[in-house]
Amino acid sequence: MRELLEFIAKSMVNHPEAVEVTLTEKETSIVLQLHVAEDDMGKVIGKQGRIAKAIRTVIKAAASNESKKVIVDIV
């Protein structure tokens, strides 16, 4: 999941070297934090959050075989 999120984010932004994904596992969930450059934030979020919602949907579908809930935070 971490690699998938990193690949998607790097494909969208102007500064792919600034993309960083942090994975934190908790008891019932997995938290993926996506860090991008300040001027790429709009590309990752999209108008009215549509791209961010699509990214979260893809990651949740990829993690459907996990027994934990997956949360994607864009920082």
UniProtKB/TrEMBL annotation:
One of its GO terms (biological process) is cell wall organization. GO terms for molecular function: RNA binding. It is found in: Cytoplasm. Its main location: cytoplasm. Pfam families: KH_KhpA-B. One of its GO terms (cellular component) is cytoplasm. Keywords: Cell shape, Cell wall biogenesis/degradation, Chaperone, Cytoplasm, RNA-binding. Belongs to the KhpA RNA-binding protein family. A probable RNA chaperone. Forms a complex with KhpB which binds to cellular RNA and controls its expression. Plays a role in peptidoglycan (PG) homeostasis and cell length regulation. Forms a complex with KhpB. This is RNA-binding protein KhpA. The lineage of its organism: Bacteria, Bacillati, Bacillota, Clostridia, Eubacteriales.
